Amino acid sequence: MLGTFAVGKTSLVRRFVESIYSDKYHTTIGVKIDKKLVQLENSELMLILWDIEGTETEFELRKSYLRGAAGYLLVADGTRQDTLYKALALQTRVEEIVGSLPFLLLMNKADLADQWNISERETTALNEKGWEVIQTSAKTGLGVEEAFHALAKKLAEA
Amino acid sequence: MKHLPLPIQDFILALTDDMLSPAYMLVTKDGRLIEWGGDLESYGVKDLEKNMDVSEHIPFLVGVLPIGINSLFLPHVQTKPDVFAFADVYLFTREQGTWILFLDSTSETAQRHSMQQKLYDSKLQVTNLEREGEALYEANAFLEQMVSERTAELSQTIQKLRQQLSEVERVRKAGQEK
User: Fold this and answer.
1) Mean pLDDT score of chain A, rounded to an integer?
2) B38 phi and psi angles, rounded to 5 deg
3) Nearest in space to A26 (alpha carbons), one of B82, B132, B107
4) pLDDT digits (tens, 9 = 90+) for B18-35
5) B interface toward A at CB cutoff 8 Å?
6) What is the pLDDT of residues B59-100, one digit of tens each?
7) In the prediction, which pLDDT does A23 show?
8) Pick from B72, B81, B112: which is nearest to A29 by CB?
9) Contact criterion met (CB < 8 Å) for B116 and A27
10) Would you say B24 and B58 are in contact if contact means Cβ atoms under 8 Å apart?
């Protein structure tokens, strides 16, 4: 799970693994590791999820946390436009460190539609680049299962 | 530490043991357990058996072994789910195999957590204030537009009324003259 601070990485993992959501923001230090078995069409896959602390810039991302990564979810907060730009910068940085890996971009906090600050034009441009973008809400659960399953599917196909 | 007198070396070792609770595992390059020691249970690692695949037992080692390089440092790894317990984990390869060293970093993590939480809470507050400021600015611009439109409407109405009034006055004077 990669993205700048307070975009909802930990909340997405908790929603996916434990079906729990809390409104209170707790910053993550270091890395928290969780796992969940995902059922695919003809197989199953154990996802080991590294919930990595959010940094303000892509250069603060610790390389060793990416060691052995098979793929990743980039997370942005749809109500804070700068978090999308930080996710884009992180993606470039990750590719520099570990090369090309399967990933998806999650536009989180979809429940806060009235505060949405990212235009359709921006997401369409990413789609045109071949990026898979999914709107999620750790609060309501919208798109969460779908996002992790989509990543698992990409990993199984890679 | 070889340049330090023995009592100081012993003191530092005792201090390290007390503050950092070192624990270790030695594994083959492909992750088979050779030996282990220290209080690994405090890091959530238990039920170990010789020759077991440690990556099947310790989730954060999946994909990490073999480390392929001389050493790897994983700071602040939360070693037990839902427990505020953290370890700095060092992996390094020597001729015996790969050593995995756990050092307790819970108190350092707690300090960082407290500072980082305050910093990020403040940044989020600033973002919210900026957002509210923008909303106020937009609301103000909308109100100014409304006032300006209404003022124009009123001016037109007053103008019309004045015209009507002077017409009435003109008709009244014409009547008097007759």
Assistant:
1) 94
2) 80, 180
3) B82
4) 899 999 999 998 899 999
5) 59-60, 62-64, 67, 72-78, 81, 86, 105, 109, 112-113, 116-117, 120-121, 123-124, 127, 131
6) 889 889 888 778 999 999 998 877 889 999 999 999 999 999
7) 87
8) B112
9) yes
10) no
Gyration radius (Cα) of chain A, Å: 14
CA atoms within 13 A on the CB side of A29: 21
Q: Is the predicted pLDDT of residue A31 greater than 90, yes or no? A: yes
Q: Is the separation of the CB atoms in B38 and B58 below 8 Å?
A: no
What is the C-alpha separation between A123 and B37, in angstroms, rounded?
51
Is there a contact between B64 and A68 if contact means CB atoms under 8 Å apart? yes
Quick check: A29 and B60 CB within 8 A? no
pLDDT of residue B105 exceeding 80: yes
Interface test with A, best of B60, B64, B114, B126 (most A CBs within 10 A): B60
What residues have CB less than 8 Å from A71, skipping those under 6 apart?
A101, A102, A103, A151, A154, A155, A158
Cα separation, A146 vs A136, whole angstroms:
9
> Would the CB atoms of B117 and A27 count as touching at under 8 Å?
yes
Spatial contact of B96 and B26, defined as CB atoms under 8 Å apart? yes
CA atoms within 13 A on the CB side of A142: 14
Number of C-beta neighbours around residue A139 at 10 A: 18
How far does the CA of residue A74 sit from the closest CA of chain B (Å)?
A: 19
What gap in Å lies between CA A28 and CA A51, rounded to an integer? 8
